[in-house]
């Protein structure tokens, strides 16, 4: 049965064409669907009811169409949802983290969508719920909790929420003795704040009308937020900004960065009225991060050509670059990802040969040791710490077959204590699955890592369907971690694979550099090479591969659909950044100026314009026989605006050949992250997986019998 025959014969929405022209660098483009961009998009993010009725009607028609085409999968979606829900411990709880007289953690109650935050006495005891997300979310179609931070004296809780999906967070302060929020609220923030040392006020980032974090304020408790003191204002719209604090409550860090340049400003947490001082002024291409170290700062930087980063120290009294001293030198191919310091130890997370590792350094002797692991491919994470003067650090471990494990590690004795193993209530036997790491030769001879998992009963003769996931932007590496959701596909004979393409840092910083700006085509060609390799190794066949990616990974989906539509049997593009050129030409959008170092500035540069125009998915839709395509979006998404996938789907329908359908599912109550509740999100994943099963002819395939 061909893919188009798997769908009912329902006419898709016909999108009205209202062409508008734009001329840049002597090139004129016409956009027949530009009207889908709401002129009042800023207001819509705050109040979706203000959306133009004509646009709303069109989006509703798209939802009606995808529901009609997917109607025969409703029961399958319910089954998938129940399977995925059954793998979640409904009353799960984190392992509390100690801080002074208390230990803080989070949990879910059975059936609950939102987390609850609690604390116990330091060495254990009854849980005291200090914030109940389910109670706060009651009656709201969308609700997401942002940062949650207790004050240094443990008397108050600073917390944030977003109830539109637009990522304009409101900050509130809770009195932990009385269990009520203070009257004061601070709207339009970036989602978190940091207390001053006295705990009588906090620093936060305020978003402007265009959703940019342009100002840092200090709010004194008991005052009106309109009177908050402006600490720093960033005049360059091309830079992101954030504020954080040190665990010893010594410092407030104001971080200013784009995708290739960093600047930090410091002020004492004990003097919120002080003017912040610059650590090292921004210099294009210079990146550095600060980590506290008592009378020194540890500095992770790429200075002096250290492409994969090195570690420096600097005196707290004068941490300018002139005073930086090398501690851990640059080693090409060993990418240092992050640092976590303690009174006597320094811990670093790094990646070498495509795999992560944790290295512990004794600050006094300089002796280092690495924590070892046995599996072929795995994921590691540093879990942070509230305390500085301790010998214990916490880390997480998982692989594609091994559920997540949380360890406390004594850096002095090197003793590893397992605190928790992720429970899979419905049962999980790692021996039922096989995980592999392959290397796919790309167009230029580079080897692209592929992490994959499949059921041990799946035949590897080219007949298995495959879901191939990719991202490949911003230097983000996709970990080979445990994913309970993908087991629903593996149990039905799918190979679930991740292509670690260029544009991420999976093989070091150079892997990132080789997948951005003028070299962006490498990202797409790597993904196509991964698909070809899986076919050559007889894991699957081209017409049985469903490609999936979200956000910038959705752009990857759009690009490979144009470049090699015959290589895929289906494509799932979530919150897809597919109208790259138009967005990078619109400097009023929230992320456009800070994104120019990643993609190029087509406003100023004709070369950047041509580079982006050559791959931008919307601009390269052609008369191809595309596979079935599913696009998913959220109305209030400030990162990838809803009109990008809406326009892309409309143009695909207008220009493509063949009868394969293209579907657009838009959540009218959410933004970039999709549905806010943990179970609501599973419903969206179940929909996507039902599409993958449908287009590969596996919608009615029963799962393999579960072994004991």
TrEMBL record:
GO terms for biological process: proteolysis. Transmembrane segments: none annotated. Residues 1-26 are annotated as: Disordered. PROSITE patterns: PRO_ENDOPEP_SER (PS00708). One of its GO terms (molecular function) is serine-type endopeptidase activity. The keyword Transferase does not apply. InterPro entries: AB_hydrolase_fold, Pept_S9_AS, Pept_S9A_N, Peptidase_S9_cat, Peptidase_S9A, Serine_Peptidase_S9A. Keywords: Hydrolase, Protease, Serine protease. Residues 12-421 form the Peptidase S9A N-terminal domain. Residues 481-698 form the Peptidase S9 prolyl oligopeptidase catalytic domain. It comes from the Bacteria. Residues 15-26 have a biased composition (Basic and acidic residues). This is Oligopeptidase B. Belongs to the peptidase S9A family. The keyword rRNA processing does not apply.
């Amino acid at each position: 049965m061909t893919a188009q025959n798997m769908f009912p014969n329902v006419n898709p929405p016909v999108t009205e064409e209202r062409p508008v022209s734009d001329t840049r660098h002597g090139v004129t483009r016409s956009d027949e669907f530009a009207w889908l961009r709401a002129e009042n998009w800023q207001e819509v993010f705050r109040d979706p009811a203000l959306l133009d009725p004509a646009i709303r009607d069109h989006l509703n028609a798209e939802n009606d169409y995808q529901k009609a085409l997917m109607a025969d999968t409703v029961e399958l979606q319910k089954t998938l949802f129940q399977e995925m829900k059954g793998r979640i411990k409904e009353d799960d709880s984190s392992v509390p983290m100690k801080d002074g007289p208390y230990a803080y953690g989070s949990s879910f109650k059975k059936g609950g969508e939102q987390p609850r935050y609690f604390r116990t006495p330091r060495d254990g005891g009854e849980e005291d719920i200090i914030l109940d997300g389910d109670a706060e979310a009651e009656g709201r179609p969308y609700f997401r909790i942002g940062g949650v931070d207790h004050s240094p004296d443990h008397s108050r809780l600073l917390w944030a929420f977003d109830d539109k999906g637009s990522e304009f967070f409101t900050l509130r302060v809770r009195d932990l003795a009385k269990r009520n929020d203070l009257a004061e609220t601070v709207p339009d923030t970036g989602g978190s704040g940091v207390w001053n040392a006295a705990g009588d006020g906090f620093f936060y980032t305020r978003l402007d009308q265009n959703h940019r974090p342009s100002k840092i304020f200090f709010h004194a408790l008991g005052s009106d937020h309109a009177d908050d003191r402006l600490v720093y204002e960033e005049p360059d719209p091309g830079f992101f900004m954030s504020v954080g604090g040190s665990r010893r409550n010594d410092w407030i860090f104001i971080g200013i960065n784009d995708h290739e340049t960093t600047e930090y400003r410091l002020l004492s947490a004990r003097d919120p009225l002080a003017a912040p001082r610059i650590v090292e002024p921004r210099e294009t291409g210079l990146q550095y991060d600060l980590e506290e170290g008592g009378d020194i700062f540890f500095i992770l930087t790429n200075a002096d050509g250290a492409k994969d980063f090195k570690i420096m120290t600097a005196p707290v009294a004068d941490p300018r670059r002139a005073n930086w001293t090398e501690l851990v030198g640059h080693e090409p191919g060993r990418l240092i990802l992050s640092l976590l310091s303690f009174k006597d130890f320094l811990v670093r997370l790094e990646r070498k040969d495509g795999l992560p590792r944790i290295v512990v350094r004794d600050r006094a002797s300089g002796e280092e040791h690495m924590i070892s692991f046995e599996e072929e491919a795995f994921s590691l994470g540093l879990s942070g710490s509230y305390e500085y003067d301790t010998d214990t650090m916490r880390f997480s471990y998982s692989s594609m077959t091994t559920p997540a494990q949380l360890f406390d590690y004594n850096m002095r004795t090197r003793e590893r204590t397992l605190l928790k193993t992720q429970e899979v209530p419905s049962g999980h036997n790692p021996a039922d699955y096989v995980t592999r790491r392959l290397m796919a030769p790309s167009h230029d001879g580079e080897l692209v890592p592929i992490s994959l998992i499949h059921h041990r009963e799946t035949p590897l003769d080219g007949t298995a369907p495959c879901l191939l996931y990719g991202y490949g932007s911003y230097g983000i590496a996709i970990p080979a971690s445990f994913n309970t959701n993908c087991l629903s596909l593996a149990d039905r004979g799918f190979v679930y694979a991740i292509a670690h393409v260029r544009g991420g840092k999976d093989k070091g910083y150079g892997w990132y550099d080789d997948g951005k700006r003028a070299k962006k085509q490498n990202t797409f060609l790597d993904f196509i090479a991964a698909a070809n390799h899986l076919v050559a190794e007889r894991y699957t066949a081209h017409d049985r591969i469903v490609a999936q990616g979200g956000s910038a990974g959705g752009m990857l989906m759009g690009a490979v659909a144009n470049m090699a539509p015959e290589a895929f049997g289906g494509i799932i593009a979530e919150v897809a950044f597919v109208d790259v050129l138009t967005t990078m030409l619109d400097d009023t959008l929230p992320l456009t100026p800070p994104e120019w170092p990643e993609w190029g500035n087509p406003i100023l540069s004709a070369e950047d314009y041509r580079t982006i125009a050559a791959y931008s998915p919307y601009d390269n839709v052609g008369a191809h026989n595309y596979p079935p395509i599913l696009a998913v979006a959220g109305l209030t998404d400030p990162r990838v605006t809803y009109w990008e996938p809406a326009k892309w789907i409309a143009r695909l329908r207008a220009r493509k050949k063949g009868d394969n359908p293209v579907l657009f599912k838009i959540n009218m109550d959410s933004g970039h992250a999709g549905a806010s509740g943990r179970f609501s999100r599973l419903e969206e994943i179940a929909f996507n997986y039902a599409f993958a099963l449908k287009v590969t002819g596996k919608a009615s395939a029963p799962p393999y019998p579960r072994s004991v």
